[in-house]
Amino acid sequence: MLVPLYEAVHERLEVGRGTRLLGLGCGAGLALLLAASRGASVTGVDSGARERLALARERLRPGHAARATARIIEGSPRDAAPAPAEPAYNLLTVFEPAGCATGDIEGLEERLAAATPLTERGTPVVLVGWGPPERCSTSSVLRVATKLADPLRGGGGLRRARRDDLEEAAQRCGLRPEGSGRVACPFGYADMDSAMRGMLSSGLFDAAVEATDQAQVDKELTEALHPHRRADGTVWMPNVFRYLIARTP
Fold first, then answer.
1. CA-to-CA distance for 112 and 129, rounded, in angstroms?
2. CB 145 within 8 A of CB 211
3. Is 220 in contact with 196 (CB distance < 8 Å)?
4. What is each CA distance from 135 to 55, 146, 184, 242, in whole angstroms?
5. pLDDT tens digits, residue range 219-237?
6. pTM, to two decimals
7. Nearby residues of 153 by Cβ (< 8 Å), 6 or more positions away
8. Per residue in 33-73, pLDDT tens?
9. Is the Cα dihedral 20, 25, 31, 36 positive or negative?
10. Which sign, positive or negative, has the C-alpha torsion 159, 103, 236, 31?
11. What is the distance between the terminal CA atoms of the chain, rounded to a whole angstrom?
12. Dihedral of CA 189/181/76/111: which sign?
């Protein structure tokens, strides 16, 4: 669903041959695959679900010249440090949207602190956040996940994304904001079953399942998706995401 965002960033930064990209929170590796198809040398690191990392490795398996140097690492950014004979990274991306859940900005800053020493001086760093809730239909659906995972918070651990979240996080990490942009990324599904599978496969509902059970999550997720079901049975949720480009010292 975030392909328009990935492509907008890659185009703006002219990702291609000579790009040595480190992707934090790489998940299933689609953004890395798109960068590799442009000729970039890519490394992805994530501490999340092994199933998604397995998919990333499958997508980036050797056999294609553009993917010959691709690496997927399970662990922390420090585990992705280049070997002594290898050059430092010259592009750092964090495509996981931040700024709408309690604590995610702090987690972003921790990962940046570990990753920026692995880059060249003046390396572009890409951070991504959700747009305003009124322009992100999926916000109401994600509220189900955080409400069930952490019921004591009442609001489910969600907070309203602030306009300067990404800039403030970058500055606290010693980065220099340089530019930003907004990209429309609608979430569209052929039917309600596809929407359910798509949302659950994101991993955002895993904690809710552990805190309650699958049946409860399925019930409340179905109810949250219902307003976005159109007359033809498709499910459509318009969203806007914002990206920030900053530079390392």
1. 15
2. no
3. no
4. 31, 19, 9, 11
5. 999 999 999 999 999 999 9
6. 0.88
7. 102, 146, 147
8. 999 999 999 999 998 778 889 999 999 987 654 556 799 99
9. positive
10. positive
11. 32
12. negative
> With 80 as the cut, is the pLDDT of residue 141 above it?
yes
Domain ranges of the chain: 3-135+159-188+238-247
- Opening angle at CA 210, ends 59 and 26, nearest 5: 25
User: Model confidence over 13-33: pLDDT tens digits?
Assistant: 999 999 999 999 999 999 999
Burial of 23 from C-beta contacts in 10 A (0-12 / 13-18 / 19+): buried
Beta strand 124-130 with 41-46 is unpaired
Mean pLDDT for all residues in the chain: 89
What CATH superfamily is the domain 3-135+159-188+238-247?
A: Vaccinia Virus protein VP39 (3.40.50.150)
What 3-state class would DSSP assign to 190? coil
Q: Could you give the CA distance from residue 194 to residue 135 in angstroms, rounded to a whole number?
A: 23
- Judged by DSSP in three states, 78 sits in helix
Strands 91-98 and 235-237, sheet pairing:
unpaired
Bridge partner list, 119? 89
Tokens of 19: 């790009």
Tell me the β-bridge partners of 72.
Answer: 44
Phi and psi for 244 in degrees, rounded to 5? -120, 135
